[in-house]
User: Fold these one by one.
Assistant:
Number 1:
Amino acid sequence: MKKIAVFTSGGDSPGMNACVRAVVRTGIYHNLDVYSIMYGYDGMIKGNIKKMQSHSVSNILQRGGTILKSARSTEFRTKEGRQKAFEELKKHGIDGLVAVGGDGTFTGAKIFYEEFGIPTVGCPGTIDNDIFGTDYTIGFDTAVNTALEAIDKIRDTAAAHDRIFFIEVMGRDSGYIAIECGIGGGAELVMVPETTTTIHDVVKSLKGLRKSKTSSIVVVAEGDEEGGAADIMEKVKSEFKGEDKEFKVTTLGHIQRGGSPTAKDRILGSRSGMAAVEGLINGKSNCMAGIINDQVVYTPFEECITKSKPLKEEYLRLQELLSI
Ligand code: F6P
């Protein structure tokens, strides 16, 4: 292996830059030529590829977003698109790839590897923490802390006005952000896609709270089966008719995707980036370099994308128990 390329794809996440920096510098350390591909798979198709030096990744470790930009490519979903991408990589002599992203990124990487055989190792970059094969994903810790800071602030105003707040956090198919924010932020209730909580359950819980609780926080993962926080709030509110209760909604949205990465995300990104390059050098491919129990583990893409990572039962119980 002589020339490798790195790209970021799907939703950006804080710590991706730390990962890119580690890939570039680990590659150079091992005497590889390292290239960057801008805009993920789209950039691969368009040949948006350039050689990186050690200084190309200076001063990015502490920055959110991704200097390589990101995109969700529809063309790469087609065989023609992937063929074009392969031709571009061939033109540059790329013989190894590091893909930083989530399950969509790894689904593309797996198909591409099976079709064209360029060795590829992934790094888990998504705020959702929904990837099998790693305890945490790059960006999750920062996103939780960002959301938590917002929840603390909302709690102040909720308490001042005796209001019930429904706060929506990200997590399309996963309640990881919601449950950790719920525990850390002392939420009265957390609604996640992994468990069923009906409107009736929400109403019952809120009505059953001890009298000394005059305000409440309900954290809702955006992918909850009852809908988004705004829908849920309206349905719950209609069950409180005639009662002197005020309801409010806050959707935290993309604020959770930005910001300077926490130490955890910088270190996870750096470890995963180094492991991906050293994995490629040692013959690993079609797999992701994750961290399980503080050890680097290479998990086949197939498992990363097909196996689910269930929420910890203990976390669900802890949140419920502490909200009485
Ligand atoms: O996958 C990460 C994520 O932030 C999800 O939590 C969210 O549903 C989605 O990306 C939003 O994607 P976009 O930025 O493309 O709207």
Number 2:
Amino acid sequence: MFAASLLSARTTAALAQLKEPAMKKYLTLGALAILFALVVACGAPITPTPSAAPSTGTGGLPADAAAVATARGLTPDDISAALKTYTPSGQLDPYIMFASGGQGGQVLVIGVPSMRILKLIGVFTPEPWQGYGLGGSGDKILAEGNVDGKEIRWGDTHHPGLSETAGEYDGQFLFINDKANARVAVIDLRDFATKQIVKNPLAINDHGGSFVTPNTEYVIEGPQYAAPLGWEYADIDTEYKDKYRGVMTLWKFDRATGRIDPAQSFSIELPPYWQDLCDAGKKVSDGWLFCNSFNTELATGGIEKGNPPFEAGTTKNDTDYLHIVNWKKAEELYKAGKTEKIKDMPVIRLDTAAKEGVLYFTPEPKSPHGADVTPGGEYVVVGGKLDPHVTIYSFDKIQKAIAALNEGTMTKDAYGVPVLSLDSTMEAQVELGLGPLHTVYDDKGYAYTSLFLDSAVARWKLGGPYESLSPEKGWTLVQKLPVQYNIGHIAAAEGDTASPDGNYVVALNKWSIDRFANVGPLLPQNFQLVDTSQTGETMQVLYDMPIGMAEPHYAQIIKADKLKPFEVYPLGTNAETMAQDPNAITAPDQAKIVRNGNNVEIWTAVVRSHFTPEHVKIKKGDHVVWHFSNLEQTRDATHGFAVPGYNINLSLEPGKTETIEFDADTAGTFAFYCTEFCSALHLEMLGYMMVEP
Ligand code: RUQ
Ligand code: CUA
């Protein structure tokens, strides 16, 4: 059975690697010195500190450093890795990685190569440090993600997607999907905060998103487990083929407002094939989307009734279908009204998509997972989880095969979708090893594919226009680098753009087993930083970073200098609208409390180290609207505001104005206080809310 073989393969791979650390070769001081000299000669930006310089040992290695290396048993590789990742205090990382926070429902912001966590952005889950979802405007954003009116207060964040201009990350926005509930969130990179959540009205779970078209015209949300559109009831035993569907949603993104505009968004109905990961074409393939699938068998499970379980049923056929979607054509159909509204969402029905040239299929090997478009858009690389190869499709060949389709002779699937033969669309196959999943690219013509079962990163050479970028022949394996362990996704510096950077790849490993101190049966994930700066068989693991908060799926890495976030908010900014807040005040003497019947409205000034007013007397049953303006314009002068017993906590960054609204339903005396250690008199930054019974 698949699960059993998967587990044993994992275990064998893990065991094989367990033996390796014991074989570390220890170094002589002389070798260390030579290595140090080499690293310095290679241009690493280091010089011995003045205090270390006088005690320089042989070959320029500070004697104390040599002693440390000997005492810790560091190999030459360890030392070069340390030199490549160590980031002295105050030195900034050249890259920023945005990683999904998995079941945590957040996004992690990580510096590369230091692998320091810089921020955790609350997205689908309340986040107390940012005061997200604890009384302020985050409540409204989280409520946008309610499902049938039900509060959902977590998410399974999978795939972060940075906004792009002409196929390059532009550093303006980040999108991320929640697989568990089919939602997409928008994060504004001016303040690294969530601004919007949209709930897909047709799908109850998703997976192949979020990723963007090359100018962020659309944010794509692809499906996963089929269900009737709008998740209406339908019996899986009798109605799967006819009623269950996949659906791909093209959310229109409006850059000016920084929001998805649901009123200009539409969906495409797909067969219930369990579409998996998707990618947008770019450059030569701009206008197209590619998405693979893994249940063309239409397996419906039911192991308890003696049916084949899903894992066997969905892996029966040798091939599934790569979905080839012409989104520009789909947009035309949508604009021409060739849609049907389901739950208020215009849907291009499956038969329309099939007939009008929106949707085509071509076979792809066993249980594919990632579909990744090369930087120039010429090829789509698909990893088949149960096939040791990656299969490379040529966009040019796909176009020719589509042009050659002839209504009388074409093959169609059970739903009438034209099927292009594998021979007519495939460019090459490269054998990499066991469990190829996802592929990313660099600037040297290499592709990097994660091998889940082999626990390795495969570096292989692209052909065609990429062949001349490095010495190896096209479509050949160059190096397999063991990683610890069982890599899922892989991320590369600027790796999803039209011009990847090279330098670094990060392996997002699902298992860590023995890499860290035992913290109980639930183990951290292991991000491993890999040096990909040189050509050939030179990849090296530089650093292990435990992620002890959830299971991140994908990550994207952007050049840090493309990000231009605020240092402080312009005074009076409402972070929800990113505009001047009409309730902002600019001096403590503007603070006031206004009562109007049972409604109490309060304007509070916040500045080191006091709130004005400090006494707030209200009555049980009052409805309270309370505005806070942080008057600071000093970087990092953030204050908090917490009311015990009322589930309220705000983060008031410099310049921000924020509003809370609540019913004073509990009488008593409540000391409210600042939750950020903001000054020497931080503890004195408090006030009293007295709620009269
Ligand atoms: S995938 S299980 Cu990104 Cu490889 Cu979601
Ligand atoms: Cu303000 Cu502590």
